[in-house]
Amino acid sequence: MTRGRQAVVFDLDGVLLESEQLWDRVRRELAARAHRPWPAEATAAMQGMSTAEWSGYLVETVGVPGSADDVAHAVIERMASRYAEHVPLLPGAVAAVRRLAAHWRLGLASSSPRRLIDAVLAAGGMRGEFSVTISTEEVEAGKPSPAVYQAVVARLGVPAHGTVAIEDSSNGLRSAAAAGLVVIALPNPDFPPVDDALDLAAARVDRLDDLTPELIEAVLAER
């Protein structure tokens, strides 16, 4: 298979952006202001959900008052405000994107809303490196559904089995694997994926500097 029929797809939160903790903090603050207890499973459950899904979860499961649309707006406004002050790119994020973009077309499959995706890529000077960017709010379901990865590879015009996904969370790993992509795990140390999700990965790296063209070639060759 030629490189023209191959691609690399990045997740955003937890892979290029140190933002999972921020999402969690903002959502918890919203619940705390409403005097709602935070369910033990809530943080992991919402990782990878689309905007409509996690805002509905906050209303229906956590008990945050208001409509899902209102809750989504409140959370996204707070996230945008934090990003306006500082975009928490992970060490090596821009370099990794540019390093792989020199060899393959890149896609982005993110659970962040479009507004935040565009803000982050613009702030990091990475917008031009990605051929396709899709938010889970633009497909029928969030991760662990394969919908967002299926949409990205379809728009890239590459086969799933010739595409590598970089993911950090249980739901993200499951999403990419269910779509048929070759998965590299970059586990989030604060919210590590469970073992059965991690087992879906063809390789594991602990930092973005380890995402090399040689590694991508190796996992694609194994497929």
UniProtKB/TrEMBL annotation:
It comes from the Bacteria. Gene3D superfamilies: HAD superfamily/HAD-like, Putative phosphatase, domain 2. Pfam families: Hydrolase (PF00702). NCBIfam families: HAD-SF-IA-v3. This is Haloacid dehalogenase. It comes from Pseudonocardia asaccharolytica DSM 44247 = NBRC 16224.
